[in-house]
Amino acid sequence: MLRRKIYDSILEWKKAKNGTCLLIKGARQVGKTYIIRKFGEDNYKNTVYINFDIDEDLKSAFDGNLNVDHITMLLSGLRTGFKFEEGSTLLILDEIQNCPRARTALKAFAVDGRYDVIASGSLLGVNLKKVPSFPVGYETDMTLRPLDFEEFVWGMGLDEKVIEEVKSCISEKTPLSAPLMKAMTDLFDQYMIIGGMPKAVTTFIEKKDFNLAADVVKNILSVTKSDIATYSSASDRVKTRACLDSIPAQLTKTNKKFVYADVMEGNNPSTRKYAGNLLWLYEAGLIEYCYNLKQPTFPLESNMFIDSFKVYMSDTGMLMNMYPVETRRSILLKHPSVNKGGVTENVVADAIAASGRRLYYMHNGRREIDFIVQLGEEIAAMEVKSGKDRASRTLDNMAKEKGPITRFIKLEDGDIRVDENGVEHYPLFATGFIDSMCKKE
Protein backbone atom coordinates (compact mmCIF):
# COMPACT_ATOMS: atom_id res chain seq x y z
CA MET A 1 0.00 0.00 0.00
CA LEU A 2 1.26 3.45 -0.90
CA ARG A 3 1.06 5.79 2.08
CA ARG A 4 -0.82 8.99 1.25
CA LYS A 5 -0.97 12.17 3.33
CA ILE A 6 -4.62 12.73 2.50
CA TYR A 7 -5.55 9.68 4.61
CA ASP A 8 -4.82 11.65 7.79
CA SER A 9 -6.87 14.59 6.47
CA ILE A 10 -9.83 12.28 5.83
CA LEU A 11 -9.47 10.90 9.36
CA GLU A 12 -9.57 14.45 10.74
CA TRP A 13 -12.80 15.07 8.79
CA LYS A 14 -14.35 11.94 10.30
CA LYS A 15 -13.36 12.90 13.83
CA ALA A 16 -14.53 16.50 13.44
CA LYS A 17 -18.20 15.52 12.95
CA ASN A 18 -18.80 18.90 11.31
CA GLY A 19 -22.03 17.99 9.54
CA THR A 20 -20.61 17.81 6.03
CA CYS A 21 -20.06 15.21 3.37
CA LEU A 22 -16.53 14.91 2.02
CA LEU A 23 -15.84 15.64 -1.65
CA ILE A 24 -12.45 14.49 -2.98
CA LYS A 25 -11.37 15.93 -6.31
CA GLY A 26 -8.42 15.02 -8.48
CA ALA A 27 -7.30 13.95 -11.91
CA ARG A 28 -7.86 10.41 -13.13
CA GLN A 29 -5.55 7.71 -11.79
CA VAL A 30 -4.25 9.69 -8.79
CA GLY A 31 -5.57 7.03 -6.39
CA LYS A 32 -8.85 8.49 -5.14
CA THR A 33 -10.81 5.24 -5.28
CA TYR A 34 -8.11 3.19 -3.58
CA ILE A 35 -7.56 5.54 -0.65
CA ILE A 36 -11.29 6.06 -0.02
CA ARG A 37 -12.07 2.33 -0.07
CA LYS A 38 -9.07 1.64 2.17
CA PHE A 39 -10.31 4.31 4.59
CA GLY A 40 -13.74 2.66 4.63
CA GLU A 41 -12.28 -0.78 5.36
CA ASP A 42 -10.17 0.61 8.21
CA ASN A 43 -12.76 2.79 9.92
CA TYR A 44 -16.32 1.49 9.34
CA LYS A 45 -18.31 -1.67 9.95
CA ASN A 46 -20.12 -1.23 6.62
CA THR A 47 -18.90 0.40 3.42
CA VAL A 48 -21.40 0.94 0.61
CA TYR A 49 -19.47 1.61 -2.60
CA ILE A 50 -21.08 2.97 -5.77
CA ASN A 51 -19.18 3.77 -8.95
CA PHE A 52 -21.38 5.78 -11.30
CA ASP A 53 -19.10 4.88 -14.21
CA ILE A 54 -20.11 1.24 -13.75
CA ASP A 55 -23.32 1.08 -11.67
CA GLU A 56 -25.64 2.69 -14.18
CA ASP A 57 -28.74 1.16 -12.60
CA LEU A 58 -28.02 2.76 -9.22
CA LYS A 59 -28.45 6.25 -10.64
CA SER A 60 -32.19 5.68 -10.53
CA ALA A 61 -32.10 5.79 -6.71
CA PHE A 62 -31.40 9.52 -6.99
CA ASP A 63 -33.95 10.34 -9.69
CA GLY A 64 -36.92 11.16 -7.48
CA ASN A 65 -37.24 12.12 -3.84
CA LEU A 66 -33.85 12.95 -2.31
CA ASN A 67 -34.93 11.99 1.19
CA VAL A 68 -32.19 9.87 2.82
CA ASP A 69 -34.53 7.04 3.86
CA HIS A 70 -35.95 6.89 0.33
CA ILE A 71 -32.51 6.75 -1.28
CA THR A 72 -31.11 4.11 1.08
CA MET A 73 -34.24 1.98 0.69
CA LEU A 74 -33.88 2.01 -3.10
CA LEU A 75 -30.15 1.28 -2.95
CA SER A 76 -30.72 -1.66 -0.58
CA GLY A 77 -33.35 -3.00 -2.93
CA LEU A 78 -31.10 -2.71 -5.97
CA ARG A 79 -28.13 -4.36 -4.21
CA THR A 80 -28.82 -6.97 -1.54
CA GLY A 81 -25.31 -6.60 -0.10
CA PHE A 82 -25.78 -2.94 0.86
CA LYS A 83 -26.27 -2.40 4.61
CA PHE A 84 -27.05 0.97 6.15
CA GLU A 85 -26.51 1.06 9.92
CA GLU A 86 -26.59 4.36 11.76
CA GLY A 87 -23.17 5.53 12.96
CA SER A 88 -21.21 2.67 11.38
CA THR A 89 -21.73 3.05 7.61
CA LEU A 90 -19.70 4.90 5.00
CA LEU A 91 -21.40 5.60 1.67
CA ILE A 92 -18.90 6.15 -1.16
CA LEU A 93 -20.19 7.84 -4.31
CA ASP A 94 -17.37 7.43 -6.82
CA GLU A 95 -17.22 9.25 -10.19
CA ILE A 96 -20.08 11.41 -8.95
CA GLN A 97 -19.76 13.70 -11.97
CA ASN A 98 -21.75 11.07 -13.87
CA CYS A 99 -24.75 11.41 -11.53
CA PRO A 100 -25.46 15.11 -10.83
CA ARG A 101 -28.52 14.28 -8.73
CA ALA A 102 -26.28 12.34 -6.33
CA ARG A 103 -24.18 15.48 -5.89
CA THR A 104 -27.33 17.44 -5.05
CA ALA A 105 -28.31 14.73 -2.53
CA LEU A 106 -25.18 15.36 -0.45
CA LYS A 107 -27.02 18.14 1.42
CA ALA A 108 -29.72 15.71 2.53
CA PHE A 109 -27.13 13.22 3.81
CA ALA A 110 -25.18 15.98 5.60
CA VAL A 111 -28.30 17.28 7.36
CA ASP A 112 -29.50 13.76 8.23
CA GLY A 113 -26.14 12.80 9.73
CA ARG A 114 -26.72 9.08 10.25
CA TYR A 115 -24.25 7.97 7.58
CA ASP A 116 -20.89 9.36 6.56
CA VAL A 117 -20.61 10.10 2.86
CA ILE A 118 -17.48 10.51 0.74
CA ALA A 119 -17.94 11.50 -2.89
CA SER A 120 -15.18 11.67 -5.47
CA GLY A 121 -14.74 12.52 -9.11
CA SER A 122 -12.13 13.13 -11.76
CA LEU A 123 -13.83 15.78 -13.86
CA LEU A 124 -15.91 17.62 -11.29
CA GLY A 125 -15.01 21.10 -12.49
CA VAL A 126 -15.53 20.06 -16.10
CA ASN A 127 -18.66 17.95 -16.02
CA LEU A 128 -20.76 19.15 -13.10
CA LYS A 129 -21.68 22.59 -14.38
CA LYS A 130 -25.16 21.21 -15.15
CA VAL A 131 -25.94 20.33 -11.54
CA PRO A 132 -29.19 22.16 -10.64
CA SER A 133 -27.96 23.05 -7.14
CA PHE A 134 -24.68 22.57 -5.32
CA PRO A 135 -24.84 21.63 -1.62
CA VAL A 136 -23.01 24.79 -0.56
CA GLY A 137 -21.98 24.65 3.09
CA TYR A 138 -22.58 20.91 3.30
CA GLU A 139 -19.35 19.74 1.64
CA THR A 140 -15.77 19.59 2.82
CA ASP A 141 -13.57 19.69 -0.27
CA MET A 142 -10.16 18.02 -0.59
CA THR A 143 -7.94 17.53 -3.62
CA LEU A 144 -5.79 14.46 -4.16
CA ARG A 145 -2.78 15.08 -6.37
CA PRO A 146 -0.21 12.61 -7.69
CA LEU A 147 2.28 11.43 -5.08
CA ASP A 148 4.60 14.18 -3.92
CA PHE A 149 8.30 13.45 -3.47
CA GLU A 150 7.98 12.56 0.22
CA GLU A 151 5.18 10.08 -0.53
CA PHE A 152 7.34 8.67 -3.32
CA VAL A 153 10.29 8.01 -1.01
CA TRP A 154 7.92 6.45 1.54
CA GLY A 155 6.89 4.04 -1.19
CA MET A 156 10.51 3.37 -2.09
CA GLY A 157 11.08 2.26 1.50
CA LEU A 158 13.26 5.12 2.75
CA ASP A 159 13.50 5.07 6.54
CA GLU A 160 11.57 7.83 8.34
CA LYS A 161 14.68 8.74 10.35
CA VAL A 162 16.55 9.44 7.13
CA ILE A 163 13.76 11.71 5.91
CA GLU A 164 13.78 13.60 9.21
CA GLU A 165 17.56 14.05 8.89
CA VAL A 166 17.09 15.56 5.43
CA LYS A 167 14.39 17.91 6.71
CA SER A 168 16.57 18.95 9.63
CA CYS A 169 19.49 19.81 7.37
CA ILE A 170 17.22 21.86 5.11
CA SER A 171 15.77 23.68 8.10
CA GLU A 172 19.18 24.37 9.66
CA LYS A 173 20.85 25.11 6.27
CA THR A 174 23.57 22.56 6.99
CA PRO A 175 25.17 20.24 4.39
CA LEU A 176 24.13 16.62 4.04
CA SER A 177 26.56 13.74 4.20
CA ALA A 178 27.89 12.68 0.79
CA PRO A 179 26.13 9.26 0.83
CA LEU A 180 22.81 10.81 1.83
CA MET A 181 23.17 13.53 -0.79
CA LYS A 182 23.73 10.93 -3.51
CA ALA A 183 20.89 8.69 -2.35
CA MET A 184 18.38 11.56 -2.27
CA THR A 185 19.54 12.92 -5.63
CA ASP A 186 19.14 9.51 -7.25
CA LEU A 187 15.64 9.13 -5.78
CA PHE A 188 14.67 12.58 -7.03
CA ASP A 189 15.91 11.74 -10.53
CA GLN A 190 13.77 8.61 -10.45
CA TYR A 191 10.78 10.62 -9.25
CA MET A 192 11.30 13.19 -12.00
CA ILE A 193 11.23 10.41 -14.61
CA ILE A 194 8.39 8.30 -13.18
CA GLY A 195 6.20 11.01 -11.70
CA GLY A 196 3.62 10.48 -8.99
CA MET A 197 0.84 8.46 -10.58
CA PRO A 198 0.32 5.61 -8.05
CA LYS A 199 0.13 2.79 -10.60
CA ALA A 200 3.34 3.93 -12.29
CA VAL A 201 5.12 4.23 -8.93
CA THR A 202 3.86 0.81 -7.80
CA THR A 203 4.99 -0.73 -11.09
CA PHE A 204 8.48 0.71 -10.65
CA ILE A 205 8.68 -0.41 -7.01
CA GLU A 206 7.73 -3.96 -7.98
CA LYS A 207 9.59 -4.31 -11.30
CA LYS A 208 12.39 -1.72 -11.07
CA ASP A 209 11.82 -1.04 -14.76
CA PHE A 210 11.54 2.53 -16.09
CA ASN A 211 10.06 1.33 -19.38
CA LEU A 212 7.19 -0.51 -17.68
CA ALA A 213 6.46 2.54 -15.51
CA ALA A 214 6.53 4.71 -18.65
CA ASP A 215 4.02 2.39 -20.32
CA VAL A 216 1.61 3.01 -17.42
CA VAL A 217 1.96 6.78 -17.79
CA LYS A 218 1.49 6.59 -21.56
CA ASN A 219 -1.76 4.72 -20.97
CA ILE A 220 -2.90 7.45 -18.57
CA LEU A 221 -2.10 10.06 -21.23
CA SER A 222 -4.17 8.07 -23.70
CA VAL A 223 -7.14 7.98 -21.29
CA THR A 224 -6.71 11.72 -20.73
CA LYS A 225 -6.97 12.40 -24.44
CA SER A 226 -10.05 10.18 -24.59
CA ASP A 227 -11.60 12.29 -21.82
CA ILE A 228 -10.97 15.40 -23.88
CA ALA A 229 -12.80 13.80 -26.78
CA THR A 230 -15.67 12.59 -24.55
CA TYR A 231 -16.28 15.59 -22.31
CA SER A 232 -15.40 18.50 -24.63
CA SER A 233 -17.74 19.94 -27.21
CA ALA A 234 -16.98 19.09 -30.83
CA SER A 235 -15.66 22.62 -31.46
CA ASP A 236 -13.31 22.46 -28.44
CA ARG A 237 -11.79 18.99 -28.76
CA VAL A 238 -9.07 19.94 -31.22
CA LYS A 239 -8.18 23.14 -29.37
CA THR A 240 -8.03 21.49 -25.94
CA ARG A 241 -5.85 18.69 -27.29
CA ALA A 242 -3.63 21.26 -29.03
CA CYS A 243 -3.18 23.17 -25.75
CA LEU A 244 -2.12 19.98 -23.98
CA ASP A 245 0.26 18.95 -26.75
CA SER A 246 1.88 22.41 -26.81
CA ILE A 247 2.98 22.38 -23.15
CA PRO A 248 6.31 20.51 -23.64
CA ALA A 249 7.42 22.99 -26.31
CA GLN A 250 6.20 25.95 -24.24
CA LEU A 251 8.38 24.81 -21.32
CA THR A 252 11.43 24.29 -23.52
CA LYS A 253 11.58 28.01 -24.39
CA THR A 254 13.93 30.34 -22.52
CA ASN A 255 10.95 32.49 -21.59
CA LYS A 256 8.43 29.87 -20.51
CA LYS A 257 5.41 32.19 -20.53
CA PHE A 258 2.47 30.43 -22.17
CA VAL A 259 1.94 31.93 -25.63
CA TYR A 260 -1.37 31.26 -27.37
CA ALA A 261 0.23 31.77 -30.78
CA ASP A 262 2.41 28.72 -30.15
CA VAL A 263 -0.56 26.38 -29.69
CA MET A 264 -1.66 26.01 -33.30
CA GLU A 265 -0.46 27.61 -36.50
CA GLY A 266 -2.87 29.72 -38.50
CA ASN A 267 -4.93 30.95 -35.54
CA ASN A 268 -5.28 34.49 -34.26
CA PRO A 269 -4.16 34.48 -30.63
CA SER A 270 -5.53 37.96 -29.94
CA THR A 271 -9.00 36.52 -29.34
CA ARG A 272 -7.66 34.39 -26.49
CA LYS A 273 -9.62 31.63 -28.17
CA TYR A 274 -7.75 28.96 -26.16
CA ALA A 275 -8.39 30.38 -22.66
CA GLY A 276 -11.40 28.14 -22.09
CA ASN A 277 -9.49 25.11 -23.32
CA LEU A 278 -6.67 25.72 -20.85
CA LEU A 279 -9.26 26.14 -18.11
CA TRP A 280 -10.70 22.72 -19.06
CA LEU A 281 -7.26 21.16 -18.50
CA TYR A 282 -6.91 22.97 -15.17
CA GLU A 283 -10.34 21.91 -13.92
CA ALA A 284 -9.55 18.32 -14.93
CA GLY A 285 -6.51 18.49 -12.62
CA LEU A 286 -3.98 18.18 -15.44
CA ILE A 287 -2.18 21.52 -15.30
CA GLU A 288 -1.19 24.30 -12.91
CA TYR A 289 -1.10 28.02 -13.71
CA CYS A 290 1.91 30.06 -12.56
CA TYR A 291 1.08 33.77 -12.66
CA ASN A 292 3.44 36.67 -13.33
CA LEU A 293 3.58 39.20 -10.48
CA LYS A 294 3.45 42.95 -10.92
CA GLN A 295 5.38 43.26 -7.67
CA PRO A 296 6.32 40.71 -5.00
CA THR A 297 4.36 42.11 -2.07
CA PHE A 298 1.67 40.69 0.22
CA PRO A 299 -0.89 39.52 -0.62
CA LEU A 300 0.69 37.95 -3.68
CA GLU A 301 -2.64 37.02 -5.30
CA SER A 302 -3.63 40.68 -5.52
CA ASN A 303 -0.48 41.55 -7.48
CA MET A 304 -0.64 39.06 -10.34
CA PHE A 305 -1.23 39.64 -14.03
CA ILE A 306 -4.25 37.47 -14.78
CA ASP A 307 -3.33 37.20 -18.48
CA SER A 308 0.41 36.55 -18.08
CA PHE A 309 1.28 33.06 -16.89
CA LYS A 310 3.24 29.87 -17.35
CA VAL A 311 1.60 26.44 -17.50
CA TYR A 312 3.02 23.33 -15.86
CA MET A 313 1.79 19.74 -15.94
CA SER A 314 0.42 18.56 -12.57
CA ASP A 315 2.46 15.37 -12.90
CA THR A 316 6.03 15.60 -14.17
CA GLY A 317 5.96 11.94 -15.20
CA MET A 318 3.24 12.78 -17.73
CA LEU A 319 5.32 15.68 -19.05
CA MET A 320 8.39 13.43 -19.27
CA ASN A 321 6.48 11.01 -21.50
CA MET A 322 5.51 13.85 -23.82
CA TYR A 323 9.21 14.51 -24.53
CA PRO A 324 11.52 12.25 -26.56
CA VAL A 325 13.00 9.30 -24.64
CA GLU A 326 16.42 11.02 -24.79
CA THR A 327 15.25 13.42 -22.07
CA ARG A 328 14.71 10.51 -19.70
CA ARG A 329 18.09 9.03 -20.57
CA SER A 330 19.84 12.35 -20.06
CA ILE A 331 18.49 12.57 -16.51
CA LEU A 332 19.52 9.01 -15.69
CA LEU A 333 22.99 9.51 -17.18
CA LYS A 334 23.24 13.12 -15.96
CA HIS A 335 24.09 14.11 -19.53
CA PRO A 336 24.37 17.89 -20.06
CA SER A 337 23.69 17.96 -23.82
CA VAL A 338 19.90 17.58 -23.61
CA ASN A 339 17.77 20.54 -22.54
CA LYS A 340 15.88 19.30 -19.51
CA GLY A 341 15.18 22.70 -17.98
CA GLY A 342 11.45 22.42 -18.63
CA VAL A 343 11.20 19.09 -16.82
CA THR A 344 13.29 20.31 -13.89
CA GLU A 345 11.26 23.48 -13.52
CA ASN A 346 8.04 21.46 -13.77
CA VAL A 347 9.00 19.10 -10.94
CA VAL A 348 9.80 22.11 -8.73
CA ALA A 349 6.44 23.67 -9.63
CA ASP A 350 4.72 20.40 -8.71
CA ALA A 351 6.46 20.37 -5.32
CA ILE A 352 5.41 23.95 -4.57
CA ALA A 353 1.81 23.27 -5.64
CA ALA A 354 1.68 20.03 -3.63
CA SER A 355 2.55 22.02 -0.50
CA GLY A 356 -0.66 24.02 -0.97
CA ARG A 357 1.03 27.14 -2.29
CA ARG A 358 -0.10 29.01 -5.37
CA LEU A 359 2.48 29.37 -8.15
CA TYR A 360 3.94 32.76 -9.07
CA TYR A 361 6.94 34.03 -10.99
CA MET A 362 8.27 37.46 -11.92
CA HIS A 363 9.29 38.78 -15.33
CA ASN A 364 9.15 42.55 -15.59
CA GLY A 365 11.63 43.19 -18.39
CA ARG A 366 14.57 43.84 -16.12
CA ARG A 367 14.33 40.80 -13.94
CA GLU A 368 13.14 37.27 -14.30
CA ILE A 369 12.73 34.93 -11.34
CA ASP A 370 11.48 31.38 -11.85
CA PHE A 371 9.29 31.29 -8.74
CA ILE A 372 8.14 33.71 -6.06
CA VAL A 373 7.14 31.68 -3.01
CA GLN A 374 5.65 32.52 0.35
CA LEU A 375 7.58 30.83 3.13
CA GLY A 376 5.77 31.52 6.37
CA GLU A 377 5.73 35.30 6.74
CA GLU A 378 8.53 35.80 4.22
CA ILE A 379 8.63 36.15 0.45
CA ALA A 380 11.32 34.13 -1.32
CA ALA A 381 12.75 34.40 -4.82
CA MET A 382 13.58 30.95 -6.15
CA GLU A 383 15.76 30.11 -9.16
CA VAL A 384 16.06 26.64 -10.72
CA LYS A 385 19.39 25.62 -12.27
CA SER A 386 19.45 22.33 -14.16
CA GLY A 387 22.65 22.66 -16.20
CA LYS A 388 26.30 23.49 -15.65
CA ASP A 389 25.66 27.25 -15.72
CA ARG A 390 24.71 28.10 -12.16
CA ALA A 391 25.17 31.86 -12.44
CA SER A 392 22.19 33.93 -11.35
CA ARG A 393 23.09 37.60 -11.43
CA THR A 394 19.49 38.67 -10.86
CA LEU A 395 19.26 36.68 -7.64
CA ASP A 396 22.68 37.88 -6.45
CA ASN A 397 21.78 41.52 -7.12
CA MET A 398 18.41 41.25 -5.40
CA ALA A 399 20.06 39.75 -2.33
CA LYS A 400 22.09 42.95 -1.93
CA GLU A 401 19.00 45.15 -1.99
CA LYS A 402 16.41 45.89 0.66
CA GLY A 403 12.93 45.06 -0.54
CA PRO A 404 9.86 42.91 0.04
CA ILE A 405 11.79 39.77 -0.95
CA THR A 406 13.85 38.64 2.04
CA ARG A 407 14.86 35.09 1.04
CA PHE A 408 16.92 34.20 -2.02
CA ILE A 409 17.06 30.53 -2.97
CA LYS A 410 18.95 28.72 -5.69
CA LEU A 411 18.00 25.12 -6.50
CA GLU A 412 20.80 23.21 -8.19
CA ASP A 413 22.82 20.02 -8.38
CA GLY A 414 24.73 20.69 -5.18
CA ASP A 415 24.63 20.50 -1.40
CA ILE A 416 23.08 22.91 1.10
CA ARG A 417 25.00 26.12 1.83
CA VAL A 418 24.61 29.88 2.19
CA ASP A 419 27.01 31.99 0.10
CA GLU A 420 28.63 35.35 0.81
CA ASN A 421 25.69 37.23 -0.73
CA GLY A 422 23.18 35.53 1.55
CA VAL A 423 21.82 33.35 -1.25
CA GLU A 424 20.66 29.96 0.04
CA HIS A 425 21.69 26.97 -2.09
CA TYR A 426 19.72 23.74 -1.93
CA PRO A 427 19.67 20.54 -3.96
CA LEU A 428 16.64 20.23 -6.23
CA PHE A 429 15.07 17.55 -4.05
CA ALA A 430 14.81 20.03 -1.15
CA THR A 431 11.64 21.43 -2.74
CA GLY A 432 10.00 18.12 -1.89
CA PHE A 433 10.32 19.27 1.73
CA ILE A 434 9.65 22.96 1.12
CA ASP A 435 7.92 23.50 4.46
CA SER A 436 11.28 22.77 6.12
CA MET A 437 12.59 25.97 4.46
CA CYS A 438 10.26 28.11 6.60
CA LYS A 439 11.93 29.70 9.60
CA LYS A 440 11.08 28.08 12.90
CA GLU A 441 8.96 30.23 15.20
Automatic annotation (TrEMBL):
Organism: Methanomethylophilus alvi
Domain of life the protein comes from: Archaea
Domain AAA: start-end pairs: 21-152
Extent of the signal sequence: none
Pfam families the UniProt entry points to: AAA_14, DUF4143
Protein name: ATPase
Residue ranges of domain DUF4143 in the record: 226-387
InterPro entries from the UniProt entry: AAA_14 (IPR041682), DUF4143 (IPR025420), P-loop_NTPase (IPR027417)
